[in-house]
Amino acid sequence: MAVLLLGCNSQSPEGTVVSPSPTLASSPSASPIALGAPQYRALWVDAFHDGMKSPAQVEKLVADAHRGNLNALFVQVRKRGDAYFNLSDEPRATDIQGPPGFDPLAYVIQLAHDSTPRIEVHAWLNTFFVGNTSDIYVHHKLWATLSNTGTKSESFDPGVPEVLAYTHKVFMDVAKNYDVDGLHMDYVRYPGNEWGYNREAVALYMQQTGATTAPALDDEAWNAWRRGRVTMFVRDLHADLKRTKPNVKLSGALIAYGGGPASAADWPLTSAYGSVFQDWYGWLASRYIDFGVPMNYDSAWDSLEQTWFVRWLNFEKNSGFGNRILTGVGGFMNYPEGTLTQIRLALAPSAQGNRVLGIAIYSYASTSVYGNSDYYNSAEMAAGLPRQPYYAGTSHRESPSARGAAFNSEFMTQLRRSDMYWDVKRGWVTTKGVFTRPAAVPELPAA
Questions:
Q1: What is the pTM assigned to this prediction?
Q2: What CA–CA distance (Å, rounded) separates 297 from 299?
């Protein structure tokens, strides 16, 4: 049985395909587009799934973004020390499709910028995580971070000076060679507090601090040094970016594990600050990033996680930097109506009247538990959900991937207007759109 999806009208097509020819501009609108209040409405497009790996995928992506009244795309162009763009010192990703010379990043930029309304494109790069099979890792294994027990990570160590210099160049090459609206840092942190024991990094720490023995995990000076190494990378990248390409924004996908702090005084108690050494509150305060995107990935159907979600929201809105924060919403671990509810909560003012700059949704490839292959390919994972993301029994067999793709596509419609979908357990479930009109990207507050 095929998945049943129903909207106020029949299910919409994928959207008008934008011409791949670089010589053709988008057709002018028949009439001016009525825009809502400026607000960031971003979508993460990861490279571990399809999304921008061929001309057809890029055309569908931009059309889908318009269908959902979104205005910014965070497109992953470096996942494991590889490149989804041509002008790179790192190897071209092996799963790019299309004609010889096809440049995924360049084509996304062309179509998104030429469309009406214009869509921003932020190049999303995994920072210190490079995987253990990438060329850069194979050739520079001594750059890998080690745990306190000697285990080797798939991430490079920020304590190694060559790592900071090399990674800085990777980011700046994108900004110099492409008309991106922003650079978006992911994995700009340590994997955890047990990491950082690369021999060169420890030697540098001892040299700079005068320590005579290798530091223990609970050594506060060691924690501060590691935190400082990550901050140094962000600070120097931002400074170089503003000198070279001042209009390009620097942002980060930021850790928001567990329950958020009640106030700034509690910030040092967070996992971001004390476990992975990502002092993003300090980065916002020092303007080392233009905006931050805390990953508030919590399930709306789980009461404890929803409490965490609201607690982080309150901190983000009332932090004093809410006008430079996009709240990251985890569609991949929610039902469609749950994600829409979380978006509304994120965009509403706090009790003190403070707001965030907008939202970002993770992700284009997994807009809900129904579209998340981690669930529909694993009965064990799906067993933890209150409603199963697949049909059971012999009479309702279908392709989980086809059903997931249908739900991912329909979510773009659900973002903008009332809709409904068929759930195995509940029957028809209604949804209410949140982005009823397109919106321009807001101006960032002046320094």
A1: 0.92
A2: 7
